[in-house]
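User: Hey, my collaborator sent me this sequence without any context and asked if I could get a structure. I don't really work with proteins. Can you help?
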Amino acid sequence: MNDSEFDWDAIRMFLAVAEHRSLSRAAGELSISQPTLGRQITKLEDHLNLVLFERRQTGFVLTDAGMRLTEVAKEMARKAADFKRSVDLEKIHSPDLVCRITTGEWGQYFLAQHADEIVEGLDGVRLEFYADDTFWDLGRNSADIAIGNRPPKQTYLIAQKLGERGFHVYGSTEYCDRRTDVCDPASWPDQTWAGYCGTRARLKSSQLLAEILQGHSCKYAVSSSVSLLGLIKTGQAIGILPDWIGDSEDLIRVSGAPLAKNESWLSFHERLRHHPRLSRVKDRIVSVYRRRYPEE
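Assistant: No problem. I've predicted the 3D structure and written it out in structure-token form, which is a compact way to encode the shape of the chain:
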């Protein structure tokens, strides 16, 4: 293999096919045509003189060599993204120093309410919030801070526990006045509920609601947490919310003990420590969360 002729962009294509096990899905992610991607994978195998995938009717399956090289390729991709993000952070003379935060939709809703507090006195800092209900790899996705319900597995990330959150049933004063039996769990299957649809149906609150409804559907289903909150606040339905949201929204907590509990974690890349303003952003985010979360 001639290193001078090696196409490092091929690593990205290799990883996409390895992850999706499908040329069409990988091509969609990479925004290239399926035939082009197929030719590039074949070219890479010829260049390496290795078979990386078994072509099957069900898709592309990694060979043993392909599986071993995948781990190395993932590290390369992470380092490349890490380098790019580090370059971004070094551009101190840019008009803004961007801090990218990935969190769930509730986290974005909450942090947006405290944005001024988070950046107060930090001139030139720009906050970018990305609402994502999956836990991002901070290296590959080039974010600086991630908030999720579990600590990261990556050794290059540092984690801080924010606290625990409980899930409760909430209703508006109007709804509870209209349905006086709402505090009785035996009545819950007959109440009017709002829940999630689409990809958000996999969230913890959706699972809890499914257990309550015992196979029946809720009357209203939305794909947005803010829309769910709106349905509950206007008295059209009751719904399940995390307590650190529901307790601050002028709602009545209908349930007694929490239906379930989850931990909440903030993670950040170790490089953040070398950038004082971004490190202060991280500390302030931790502070606003810990003030809101119930004491354990």
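In plain terms: The radius of gyration is 24 Å. You can pass these tokens on to your collaborator as they are.
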